[in-house]
Amino acid sequence: MGSYLKFIGKKLLLAFLTVFAISVFAFLIVHLLPGDPVRVMLGAEADEAAVQAMRIQLHMDQPLVKQYVIWIGNILKGDFGKSLVLNLSIRNLIAERLPVTLSLTVPAMVISIIFGILIGIVCATHRGSFIDQLLTVLMTTMNGVPIFWIGIMLMYLFGVNLKWLPLMGYVSPKTDFLDYVKHATLPVFIMCFGPMSSIARQVRTNMLDVINQDYIRTATAYGLTTSKIRYKYALKNVLIPVITLIALQIRSIVGGSLLAEQVFSIAGISRLITMSVMNNDFLTVQALVLVISAFVVAANLLLDIAYGFVDPRIRITGGK
Amino acid sequence: MTKRSIKIQSFLKTFYGRGFIVYAATLVALVFIVFAIFAGVITPYDPNEINLAQSLALPDGSHIFGCDLHGRDVFTRILYGARISMLISVFSCVVGAVIGMVLGLIAGYLEGPVGTIIMRYVDLQLAIPPMLFTIIIGMLAGHNMFGLVFALSFGMLPGFIRLMYGLVLSLKHNDYIVALRFAKIPRWKIILKHLLPNAFPTMLVTFTMNLGSTIMLESTLSFLGIGIQQPTASWGSMVSDGYSYIFTRPFLAFVPGICILLLVLSFNILGDSLRDAIDPRLKGKL
After folding, report:
1. FRET label pair with A134: which of A85, A238, A293, A305, CA 20 to 30 Å apart?
2. Residue A254 maps to which CATH number?
3. Mapping DSSP to helix (H, G, I), strand (E, B) and coil, where does residue B3 land?
4. How many domains does one find in chain A?
């Protein structure tokens, strides 16, 4: 157990350092911009006095390190500042929109994991058969489909033509669960494309690898049933490396949600990023980069801890 | 038959080993490359010229995919969009691959503090969701073509650095490299003559595989309005423009999306085949 606690401690420290480094990157976004950020934010016609006042209000007259300390101090106190474009508190914006994004990304991730693993197992156990070829082609295609486009096409099919699903928008599951499911179906579906096909391909490769190993051959020679060998002995070793892949997919589903929210006009946190980037709302961009990355780091940390739990070898090697 | 032609023959045999699908991918890629190069010859129209008399014109003999809101021929814009997509993708991949290889080589060959700094930086960049990172860099570099190439190549650096780093680490402890070091062969000679040629096949495969995903990323950014700006034709922004007319002119969004799909898929398939033909052991790793 001692080695496991040490492993968790190490991972915690690393996660903390990563979030710190990301916060420096997020903080620097404003300062790396070409030109004067305050001028860009206020527009070209703003007069000198207003620019000066804004600069003092944002502490931009202070040295860089002091600015960072003030900025991160405020964030730790829960004060993210104010969006200059929407004129709203960024903290409230995040509190309002984060649940929306999570209520779509979490189901998308869960569905991708379940179906990705199932498809991978079916392909590997029926290697070379028609079903394997069909699913492999499907997974390859899903990986090459621009999901913003497939989202629009599905919306055209199910929303405009068949009228089975609402066109766009979002309803909270707390207000009306059925309506939430209807609105969430297409966005969640398109977000699954990338993660599901990656997981399925990885599971297929791993499973084929494991099936050919000596201990499986021994089990077969011993006279155990195929299903017992597959699901009791092989699957465990197939799924362990998949945990690493899931960690990667959590990062990439952020991209999926950027597109899903744009296509289906969902007022989530990803749409807020796109809007803020387009409108040069740097303070919001800064805050969102930090919050989203911190979320992803935290999710990866939990996965690492789970990884160390199911596979004790990882505690020693650190997953390398 | 010479040794070389036998080599080429066996290469082609594995390359096209998966049959029909690889031939189809080759054909699609070639068609789009021809489109991109000869866009000006194939179509009589200007991709950006506004002609309001033709606004949202339906497909007919002179405009096979119809016209967009500004009366621009959609087929023409598809052709020029192919040019933009491929130029940006190839350019970004070259920049990303070269810088990534150099940094990975430095990190792997020198190790020590320099190597640690490079690899820690890679970890840090990977902690930020890749698309978010690319968007932010694009914002910092400015909403123009240069900014886009910069952002795309910056975004793919970690992949190339890690790959090269791993390759160099595994190669440099091979006996023949150690022997060269003992023989006091200069470092640059070992790197240029022995390390790079051995790392080259893997890097070539990764490069090809990146082409498809970069085309995807470019069109994604253009769809979000962060990549290529109007009036330059880009498939991503064409989908986004067509989206506004989904009720009356669904093909405006349909056609450019199909092009993205076909081109990305064919590059992905060619990348996979190249991997199998160059080094089958890489299967499942790349």
Report:
1. A238
2. 1.10.3720.10
3. helix
4. 2
ipTM of the complex: 0.87
Sort out which chain A residues have CB atoms less than 8 A from B250's CB and list them.
Answer: 156, 160
**Is residue A1 situated within a structural domain?**
yes
> Are A30 and A138 contained in the same domain?
no
Question: Of B127, B237, B132, which is closest to residue A274 (Cα–Cα)?
Answer: B132
* Measured distance between the N- and C-terminal CA atoms of chain B, rounded to whole angstroms: 33
Within this chain, do residues A174 and A124 fall inside the same structural domain, yes or no? yes
Give chain B's residues under pLDDT 70.
Answer: 1, 57, 61, 280-286
Residue pLDDT, tens place only, B14-30: 778 777 888 989 999 99
CB contacts under 8 A, B 215-254 vs A, are: 216, 219-220, 223-226, 236, 239-240, 243, 246-247, 250, 253-254
Which ranges in chain A belong to alpha helices (H)?
2-32, 37-42, 48-57, 64-76, 90-125, 130-144, 147-154, 177-211, 214-221, 226-228, 235-263, 269-278, 282-310, 313-317
Cβ separation B239–A25 shorter than 8 A: no
Tell me whether residue B280 is exposed, middle or buried, using C-beta atoms within 10 angstroms of its C-beta: 0 to 12, 13 to 18, 19 or more. Answer: exposed
pLDDT at A241 over 50: yes
Q: Is the pLDDT of residue A281 over 80?
A: yes
Same domain for A15 and A106?
A: no
Cis peptide before B231 (omega within 30 of 0): yes
Same domain, A174 and A109: yes
Cβ pair B108, B167 in contact under 8 A = yes
pLDDT band at A317 (very low <50, low <70, confident <90, very high): low
